[in-house]
Amino acid sequence: MEQLIIDMGIPLLWHKPLMLLLWLMIIWLVSKFVRLQITRSQVDSEVGYKAKKAVTFSAYVLFLLIVIILYSESLGGLTVALGVAGAGIAFALQEVIASFAGWLALLFGNFYKTGDRVQLGGIKGDVIDIGILRTTLMETGNWVDGDLYNGRIVRIANSFVFKEPVFNYSGDFPFLWDEIKVPIRYGSDFELARSICHKVAEKITGGYGREAEETWAHMTRKYQVEKATTQPMITLLANDNWIEFTVRYVVDFKRRRITKSLLFTDLLNEIQSTQGKVQLASATFEITAMPFNATK
Question: How would you write the chain as a 3-class SS string?
Answer without folding.
Answer: CHHHHHHCCCCHHHHHHHHHHHHHHHHHHHHHHHHHHHHHCCCCHHHHHHHHHHHHHHHHHHHHHHHHHHCHHHHHCCHHHHHHHHHHHHHHCHHHHHHHHHHHHHHHHCCCCCCCEEEECCEEEEEEEECCCEEEEEEECCCCCCCCEEEEEEEEECCHHHHCCCEECCCCCCEEEEEEEEEECCCCCHHHHHHHHHHHHHHHHHHHHHHHHHHHHHHHHHCCCCCCCCCCEEEEEECCCCEEEEEEEEEECCCHHHHHHHHHHHHHHHHHCCCCCCCECCCCCCCCCCCCCCCC
